[in-house]
Amino acid sequence: MRSGRLAHHARVRVAGGRARGVVGLAEVGAGRERGQDALLRVELDLDEVIFGTHRDLEVDTAILCDTCQGSCAAPGTSAVTCDICKGSGNIQRAVRSLLGNVMTSSPCGTCRGYGTTIPHPCPTCQGQGRVRARRTISVDIPAGVDTGLRLQMPSQGEVGPAGGPNGDLYLEMKVKHHDVFSRNGDDLLATLELQMTDAILGTQTLLKTLDGEVTLDIRPGTQSAEVITIKERGITRLRGIGRGDLKVGVQVVTPTKLNHKEQELIKQFAASHKQQQPSLTHFQQGLFQKLRDRFLNL
Ligand SMILES: [Zn+2]
Ligand SMILES: [Zn+2]
């Protein structure tokens, strides 16, 4: 992590559950302040979620100062042991109390607990050990993420003051609305508007899915609200293996504008076909609620 101009190919893990931010803390001396965590929102199209995608993200962050490498001291100089606390970072003080003299310890005000002072602060970072910079982070976003999910990128947040350990970077996912396909877990849902004659006679049709074309056989006598499942054409699972399914709900479209000849043909058909009387059955909730609402609003 030397320069803001280098792209970093960073590891990603899905946040949640486990204790976070423990990576790398153990080997860093206690008392060194950790950098802040950062949160970035990432917008994705639904088709990017199917197989996962790649992003180069620009982050405004704090990086280690190139001039002093986090030592905070100007080149050629170094930090010196604090005169006041003799390098311990703490001030011991005897306080008189009813029980006699009690020793108390508090952080040294001169060196702010570091144990060293910087007589000649680094001019680049004004003795902070870090500078603001825009970094490009290269990240592979796994398949199957959904809105609200946070990916944790350990140690990709701000560097701490005086070369302290990095915070973590969190990427919060937002999957954009798609006009055709919606999502139910790892399944994709869509509606297929089917002409009445195709529903009666059956047909073969080419569906344009988010990852290519699929040939779909419509069997003769297909009904409205039937759901046709196309296996393994949904979203690649974030946890586990394989893909969800693509579920296509059929909406049979009744022709509204018939010319005289067509009307005659339909009448002939009705006369030769033994028709059932219209009959009541239960109201069908679910997948077609939205579509029905749309029709009602026309
Ligand atoms: Zn510096
Ligand atoms: Zn001190």
What would you say this structure looks like, in words?
This protein folds into three domains: 7-74 and 122-175, Urease metallochaperone UreE, N-terminal domain (HSP40/DNAj peptide-binding domain, Sandwich), CATH 2.60.260; 80-117, no CATH class; 182-291, HSP40/DNAj peptide-binding domain, CATH 2.60.260. Helix content is 11%, strand content 35%. It is built from four helices and 17 strands. A hairpin with a 2-residue loop joins strand 12 and strand 13. The two termini are 58 Å apart. The model is unreliable at 1-8 and 16-30 (pLDDT under 50).
CATH architecture assignment name of the largest domain: Sandwich
Q: How many angstroms does the end-to-end distance come to?
A: 58 Å
What is the assigned CATH homologous superfamily of the largest domain?
Urease metallochaperone UreE, N-terminal domain
Average of pLDDT: 85
Main sheet overview: 4 strands, mixed
Poorly predicted segments: 1-8, 16-30
**What share of the residues lie within helices?**
10-25%
- Counted beta strands: 17
CATH topology of the largest domain: HSP40/DNAj peptide-binding domain
What binds here, in terms of ligands, is: zinc ion
How are helices and strands ordered from N to C?
Answer: EEEHEEEEEEEEEEHEEEEHH
The structural class is mainly beta
The assembly state of the depicted protein chains is: single chain
Lateral arrangement of strands in the main beta sheet: 2-10-11-3
